[in-house]
C-alpha cells in the first residue's frame, strides 16, 4: 500500500492518456447529450451527476478508506453533508449527538425533534456517550476531536457498544478536524466518515465543501437520492479546486500538526493562559486516546485568556495570524469563539488554527501578542 503523501497526490486521478492533461478540468454542464434510456446513462442532468464530482468522490473515498472499496458523496457544505446523514432518521427513532460539538448541531437537533426524532446529548469522551446508548438508538453521531474543545472519544469502543446494544444503529464520525490522513473512522468500525471539506481538506479558504463516505452501497444510494431531491449539489469549479488541492494535503496536515504543537508548547509557558488543549500534548486529557487512533493530532489549539478584553487585545496584536473563523487553512487564524454565542465556552476562549508558516515565526507572533495583551 502506498503512503499518505503518494495517495493524496494521485487520489482520483485518471490513468495517464497521451496528450491529455493529468488532471481534467472542471466540467461545466447543466445537461448532457442523452440518447436512449436515462437509467443507463453515467450522466444525464447536472443535478444528478458531474464528472468533476466523480473524480473528487473517488479521491475522498481513497483517502478515507485506503485498501477497501468505499463510496463518497460530496455536498456544497459540511452542514449539507450533516443534513443528508440526519435525513436517514425517521420519526420515533433516537439519535445521540455530542453536546460539545460544532455550534450548528443544536439547530440540527431542533430540526430532528420537529420531525419526531428523539435526541439525546452527551459530552465527547468519558462514559457519558456510552451511557446514552440503548436499543432505541438509530444514529450515534461522534465528533472527535470535538470543535472547539478538542476532547476525543474512543471510536472503536463506542462502535462496539452501539453494535451490542442497538444492532441496527449507524455510527457516523465527524472527521473534519482530524482529516482522513489524521484519522480513519471507517477502519475503526464506523459506518460513515463525514467532514466539512471547507477546512483542512481543501485548505485554501476558497471553497465550501462537505462529504460523507461509507462502505455500504445502500447508504451511498440513499445519500445520493437526498442530494438529488434537495438540490444540495456542489459546483464543478469548487469540486475541481478541492481535488487539485488534495495533492498537498499530506504536506499541509503534517506541517500544521507540527506548528500547532509548537504553538501549544509556547502557550503553556504563560501564566495567563488557562485550559490549554491540544491532543498532541502528552499531558492533555485526550492524548492517550488520541494517540491510539490518530496519525496526526490536528491543527487546532484551544485555550482561555482571563476575559473577553484580554482575548481581544491578544487577537488584535497578532501580526501573522488572521482574526477569522474556520480552521485548517494554509494561513493561521484565531478567534474568540464566544462572539458567535453558540459554544458553551468562556468569554476569553480562543480557538487557534495553525497554518503552514514557519513554526518559529508563529511562536514569536504568539509570544509578542501575549505580551502586548498582558501589558495593556
From TrEMBL:
Q: Which Pfam families match?
A: Cys_Met_Meta_PP
N6-(pyridoxal phosphate)lysine modification, residue list:
199
Family annotation (InterPro entries) = Cys/Met-Metab_PyrdxlP-dep_enz, PyrdxlP-dep_Trfase, PyrdxlP-dep_Trfase_major, PyrdxlP-dep_Trfase_small
* Alphabetic keyword roster: Lyase, Pyridoxal phosphate
What GO biological process terms are annotated to this protein in UniProt? cysteine biosynthetic process via cystathionine; transsulfuration
The keyword rRNA-binding is annotated on this UniProt entry: no
Identify which cofactors the protein needs according to its UniProt entry: pyridoxal 5'-phosphate
Question: Which molecular function term from Gene Ontology is one that the record holds?
Answer: pyridoxal phosphate binding
A GO cellular component annotated for this chain's UniProt record is: cytoplasm
EC number(s) stated in the UniProt entry for this protein? 4.4.1.1
Enzyme class, top EC level, equals lyase
PANTHER family named among the record's database cross-references:
CYSTATHIONINE GAMMA-LYASE-RELATED, TRANS-SULFURATION ENZYME FAMILY MEMBER
Q: Which family does it belong to?
A: Belongs to the trans-sulfuration enzymes family.
Q: What is this protein called?
A: Cystathionine gamma-lyase
Amino acid at each position: 500500500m502506498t503512503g499518505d503523501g503518494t495517495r493524496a497526490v494521485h487520489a482520483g486521478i485518471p490513468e495517464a492518456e497521451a496528450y491529455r492533461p493529468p488532471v481534467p478540468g472542471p466540467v461545466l454542464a447543466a445537461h448532457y447529450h442523452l440518447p436512449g434510456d436515462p437509467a443507463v446513462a453515467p450522466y444525464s442532468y447536472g443535478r444528478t451527476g458531474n464528472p468533476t464530482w466523480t473524480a473528487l468522490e473517488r479521491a475522498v473515498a481513497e483517502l478515507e478508506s485506503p485498501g477497501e472499496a468505499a463510496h463518497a458523496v460530496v455536498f456544497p457544505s459540511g452542514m449539507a453533508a450533516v443534513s443528508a446523514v440526519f435525513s436517514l432518521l425517521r420519526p420515533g427513532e433516537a439519535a445521540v449527538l455530542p453536546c460539545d460539538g460544532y455550534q450548528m448541531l443544536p439547530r440540527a437537533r431542533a430540526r430532528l425533534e420537529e420531525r419526531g426524532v428523539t435526541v439525546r446529548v452527551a459530552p465527547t469522551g468519558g462514559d457519558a456517550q456510552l451511557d446514552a446508548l440503548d436499543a432505541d438508538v438509530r444514529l450515534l453521531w461522534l465528533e472527535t476531536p470535538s470543535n472547539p474543545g478538542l476532547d476525543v472519544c474512543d471510536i472503536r469502543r463506542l462502535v462496539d457498544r452501539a453494535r451490542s446494544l442497538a444492532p441496527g444503529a449507524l455510527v457516523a464520525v465527524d472527521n473534519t478536524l482530524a482529516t482522513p490522513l489524521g484519522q480513519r473512522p471507517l477502519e475503526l468500525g464506523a459506518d460513515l466518515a463525514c467532514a466539512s471539506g471547507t477546512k483542512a481538506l481543501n485548505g485554501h479558504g476558497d471553497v465550501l465543501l462537505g462529504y460523507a463516505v461509507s462502505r455500504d452501497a445502500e447508504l451511498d444510494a440513499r445519500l445520493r437520492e437526498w442530494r438529488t431531491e434537495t438540490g444540495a449539489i456542489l459546483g464543478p469549479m469548487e469540486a475541481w479546486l478541492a481535488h487539485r488541492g488534495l495533492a498537498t494535503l499530506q504536506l499541509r496536515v503534517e506541517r500544521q500538526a507540527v506548528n500547532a504543537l509548537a504553538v501549544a508548547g509556547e502557550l503553556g509557558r504563560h501564566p495567563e493562559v488557562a485550559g490549554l488543549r491540544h491532543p498532541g500534548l502528552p499531558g492533555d486529557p485526550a492524548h492517550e486516546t488520541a494517540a491510539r487512533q490518530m496519525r496526526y493530532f490536528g491543527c487546532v489549539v484551544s485555550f482561555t485568556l482571563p476575559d473577553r478584553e484580554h482575548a481581544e487585545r491578544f487577537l488584535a496584536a497578532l501580526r501573522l495570524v488572521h482574526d477569522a473563523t474556520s480552521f485548517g487553512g494554509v494561513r493561521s487564524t484565531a478567534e474568540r469563539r464566544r462572539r458567535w454565542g453558540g459554544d458553551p465556552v468562556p468569554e476569553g476562549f480562543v480557538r487557534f488554527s495553525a497554518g503552514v508558516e514557519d513554526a518559529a515565526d508563529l511562536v514569536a507572533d504568539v509570544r509578542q501578542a501575549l505580551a502586548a495583551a498582558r501589558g495593556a
